[in-house]
Amino acid sequence: MTVAERLKKHCPKPIYDCTYRELYAGISQMVNEMIAERKPEPCQKKLYYVSAEFLIGKLLVSNLLSLGIYDQVERLLTENGKSLNEVEGAEEEPSLGNGGLGRLAACFMDSVAALNLCGDGIGLCYRFGLFKQVFEENRQTEQPNPWMDTSSFLEKGRRSYEIPCGDTVLHSREYTISVVGEKRVNALHLFDLETVDETLVEEGILYDKAQIEKNLTLFLYPDDSDEAGKLLRLYQQYFMVANGARLILDECRERGGNLRRLYDYAVIQINDTHPVLMIPELIYLLVKEGIGIREATEIVKKTCAYTNHTILAEALECWPLAMMRKVVPHLVPMIQVLDEWTKKKYSNPKVAIIDADNRVQMANLAIHNTFSINGVAFLHTEILKHSELNHFYQIYPERFNNKTNGITFRRWLTQCNPDLDAFLCRTIGDRFRKDPSALEDLLAHAKDKKVLEELLIIKQANKRRLCEYLPWELNENSIFDIQIKRLHEYKRQQLNLLYLIDRYLSIKAGKLPSMPITAIFGAKAAPAYTIAKDIIHLILCMQELTENDSEVSPYLRVAMVENYNVTSASRLIPACEVSQQISLASKEASGTGNMKLMLNGAITLGTEDGANVEIHRLVGDDNIYIFGARAETVLKRYGEKSYVAREYYETVPELKRAVDFITGDKLCSVGNRQCLKRLQNELIEKDWFMTFPDFAAYKETRNAVYSDYQDRMEWAKKMLVNIAMAGYFSSDRTIMEYNTQLWKLK
Ligand code: 26Q
């Protein structure tokens, strides 16, 4: 059957008469049908990637590509006066993640399927996902994001479980999303409540947090600044792992497995601490099957592996035992036994599962009871081993390992930057699709003027397309300097802002930059994170100032994209020239945006942090701009408690000038004085993430970037080297490492 014949079955009218909504519905149903016709591949051992977040993005185009029918569908639509691009416009983006950790899970699922490995994801089906960000009066507000109404890649699954939760029993419903590889289809199992009630949501993202039978799966990480929210988050975590554990044991039995040898049938990768209750829940279920608790614990330990994604102390999860008693009373005795065993063996309070304040330390629970603990970039793992988790490294050195993150090139090159993809195929052939390190063949062309010019032309075209997509009139001949990531103080968007304010003031004083600059931001802030929201406020105020001042706008524009998500990332990344990766050294575990931007020919301006360290090593000093304090210095400064922000404020005149500007008349005429003052105070009195000590070096290095940019051939060469060396950051490489060293599938 041809694609045209197939599609006819799923469309109510001839293609040229269909609306784009109808076409999206028709094509996605056709895709689902084609996926269902594929024979399931039997497997012995299976990976379960358990994660509270899967930030998968739109699926239409990637599914068409994976099924090998993209070109046919595109042609068919064009012949009928329709565009595939607009069909994609009718698809809602599932917003089932905050940022890096969730997007990594999505890239991993893609690579597992592409490498023909047997591996499924387990998570939650949040009705409204993460909030939708809406700007009002230069401030972030939050709205629900009802993606499920229209998503037709989500299918009702066959499983439903009764989950004991606190003093009630919750009924779950499985939904599945197929993850399509060239040769295999895996599944993402997303659990929802059978009894969820969307009408509970009132104003914005506010709702009654008490009724868990109705609200449990409404939102991703509901605001946990109050007690009811915290409790809800714990309920969510338990609901996810309880369903997951039942599914895993059922599938083991269905394949004829013996639960005493669970590890021959399953390997469970625990994505950060959010799914750590999987461990006591599995032990509990195995004990219920008649296995002794010692043996059950050994089985679980051989089955589970834990990935750490953060070294920020405030992000390490711990739950008061009292709360556990309320939500998971049946797990408390399990956790207490595990705690007693470890306390008997190890007296160091830092490694206790239940701490002196009667809180369950989730990372500690994981580390004692898994066979592997991995960090997500070289530097991050080193810091875990030698500093943050050193007390554990001394006990279990063999469990610690590094798996540097990666990204799927199918989405972050082929799909989002088709011109660059075609250029690569023309220039070095398509060997890089199967072996990403083959991108290095590009290095042979580093002096080829024609090749370098082509790269510049592709970048220019992507910049033009971005300008058409964005709501402002931007100068496509300016430098596109981009910082896109969640808003967090450690990521230091505020340092970027201090530079931009300094630039703005110089322009006002008649000192014009050598090249016009367009500084673009994309970032969501957690709804209860006040200072992060103040930083967004400052960005939006600077956007207004630079847009409306005709003395400034020809030379400097600040622009912030609303509701930054996977879809807008796919537009921004191919157009980026300068990639801002300026976290305080030691704080960014890895970063993955840095990899996507590098692959698309952006040059990194960054600190020696996370995977920037590895990018630096791969491309060499000439093809990256590194500045600022290094991790050792930072850790030392924290240790000595020696940093006083005010000293810098008072001794560096241009820094003082920029900081003072935050509450000056200009900004207060477009912004809220109270918010701006709060942010300014935070910087002068605290500056916990040490932007002031790095300011001078940042300014100098960023100016050097802009100056070097003007030699177009030299810049193009840097782009080429970055693209050529990005092969290491393919998530196919990461997944192969996980598999050969930890999972041992096939
Ligand atoms: C914890 C407690 C209470 C409420 C929320 C949370 C919470 C939620 C989300 C804690 C952490 C997260 C997400 C973390 C995350 O995205 N980490 C990023 O993971 C990426 C993939 O490994 C890395 O590249 C980034 O460096 C890291 O920041």
From the alpha carbons, calculate the radius of gyration and give it in angstroms: 26 Å
Q: Name the CATH architecture of the largest domain.
A: 3-Layer(aba) Sandwich
What is the fold named in CATH at topology level of the largest domain? Answer: Rossmann fold
Distance between the termini: 34 Å
Structural class: alpha/beta
Question: Which CATH class of the largest domain?
Answer: Alpha Beta
What small molecules does the structure contain?
ligand 26Q
* Global mean pLDDT: 96
Q: Uncertain regions: pLDDT < 50 for 5+ in a row? A: none
Helix content: 40-55%
Number of folding domains?
A: 2
Can you say what the CATH homologous superfamily of the largest domain is?
Answer: Glycogen Phosphorylase B
Gross morphology is: globular
Number of strands: 20
Strand composition percent: 5-15%
For the report, how would you describe the main beta sheet? Answer: 10 strands, mixed
Counting DSSP H or I runs of 4 or more residues, the number of helices is: 31
Provide tags for this entry:
Rossmann fold; 20 strands; ten-stranded mixed sheet; six-stranded parallel sheet; 2 domains; binds ligand 26Q; single chain; alpha/beta; 746 residues
How would you describe what is shown here?
This protein has 746 residues and is of the alpha/beta class. It has two domains: 38-58 and 93-405 and 734-743, 3-Layer(aba) Sandwich (Rossmann fold); 457-726, Rossmann fold (3-Layer(aba) Sandwich), CATH 3.40.50. Helix content is 47%, strand content 14%. It contains 31 helices and 20 strands. The strands form four sheets. Strands 1, 2, 5, 6, 7, 8, 9, 10, 13 and 14 form a ten-stranded mixed β-sheet that branches. A six-stranded parallel β-sheet has the order 17-16-15-18-19-20, with helices on both faces. Helix 20 (530-548) crosses helix 28 (673-685). The protein starts with a helix and ends with a helix. The model has no long low-confidence stretch (mean pLDDT 96). Bound molecules: ligand 26Q. Residues 98-101, 104, 221, 224, 309-310, 315, 317, 376, 405, 588-592, 610 line the site of ligand 26Q.
